[in-house]
Amino acid sequence: QKTPAIVSFPMVFEATESIAAAALDAGLIWVTYGGTLEHQSADIRFSFRESGTLLGEAAAKWAEEELNGKGKVAFLIDETIELGRERTKGMIDAFTKLAPGVDVVAREQAIDPDTGLSKTNALLAKHPDLNIVLGITDSAAYGGYKAFQQAGRKKDDRKTFVGGQDGSVPSLLAIKQGTFYRASAALAPRDMADAIVEVPLAVAAGKANPSAQVPVKLVRRGDTAEIDALLAQNG
Q1: Residue-level pLDDT at 11
Q2: Which residue, of 35, 104, 121, 205, is most buried by count of CB atoms within 10 Å of its CB?
Q3: For the purposes of burial, counting CB atoms within 10 Å of the CB of 115, is it exposed (0-12), middle (13-18) or buried (19 or more)?
Q4: Measuring CA to CA, which residue among 232, 228, 235 is closest to residue 175?
Q5: At CA 109, angle to CA 36 and CA 161, rounded to 5?
Q6: What percent of the chain has pLDDT over 70?
Q7: Interaxial angle between packed helices 113-126 and 138-150, expressed in degrees from 0 to 180 and rounded to the nearest 10
Q8: Which pTM value belongs to this model?
Q9: How does residue 115 score in pLDDT terms, banded at 50, 70 and 90?
C-alpha cells in the first residue's frame, strides 16, 4: 500500500526480519519498537536493563529493611525477546546482588495477568511464605498480586512486596492506594507516543541518530503527583 513509514513491535523478531527487509527494499521507513532488527531504519527502546535494575534495587532495599535480608522471592520473567531478556537480567542481577540472603524460589515465564496469576498460585501452594514477586511487566506482576489476595494475604501486608514494569493503570492504582503492590518501573505514555511519531520523521529528515531511548522512572507509594500524572496520560 506504499505506507511511507511503519512502526512495528515484532513479537517474533526473527520472523519479522524478512518483512522489514522487504519494507526497506520498497523504499519505506521501518522503525522497530521494543528492540532492534538487522533490517530497520531506526528503533525505539525504553531503557530495558535500567527498568529491571530500578525494580530489583527497590525490592532488595525493602527486603533488607523489612525482612532483615531474609525471605523468599519469585521472578516472573520473559526470555523470548530482547526487551524481556534485558529487563529480566537487570531485575534479577540487581536484586540478587543487593539481597543475597533472600532465597530465589522460582523464575517463571509470565508476561500477562492470567499467567502471572496461575504461576503465582502454583508457587504459593509450594511456598505459602513467599514474600516477593517481581514481574517483567506490570501485567504479570498484577496477576501475582491477585494471587496473593486470593490466598488470603491482606492488601497492606507489611511482609509482602509485589512490583512490576511499564506503569500499567491497575498497578499504579494499587501503588497509590498503599497496598503491597509497592513499585513500578514506569514509562510515560506521552513519551512513548511522541517517540512513535518523532522517530520516523527524524529518519525522513535524514537525521544522523534518529533512534530514541524512552526514559523510565520508578514510582512507589507516596509518589502521588507522579502517579496521577501517569494515570492522566493513560486516560
Answers
A1: 81
A2: 35
A3: middle
A4: 228
A5: 105
A6: 100
A7: 40
A8: 0.92
A9: very high
For cell 514481574, what's the residue? 135
At residue 207, the pLDDT reads 95
Query: For residues 205 and 198, what is the distance between their CA atoms, to the nearest angstrom?
Result: 10
Q: Please give the full DSSP string across 122-162, using - where no structure is assigned.
A: HHHHH-TT--EEEESSHHHHHHHHHHHHHTT--TT-TT-EE
Instruction: At 101, give phi and psi (nearest 5°).
Output: -85, -5
In the chain, % of residues over pLDDT 90 = 92
50-76 residues labelled b (16+ CB within 10 A) or e (exposed): bbbbbbbbbbbebbeeebeeebbbbbb
Q: What's the CA gap between 189 and 107, in Å, rounded?
A: 29
- Domains, the chain, ordered by start: 5-47+188-215 (no CATH), 48-186 (3.40.50.2300)
What pLDDT score does 40 carry? 96
**Burial grade of 3 (CB within 10 A; 0-12, 13-18, 19 or more):** exposed
Spatial separation of the C-alpha atoms in residues 185 and 194, rounded to whole Å: 19
Grid cell in block for residue 160: 509482602
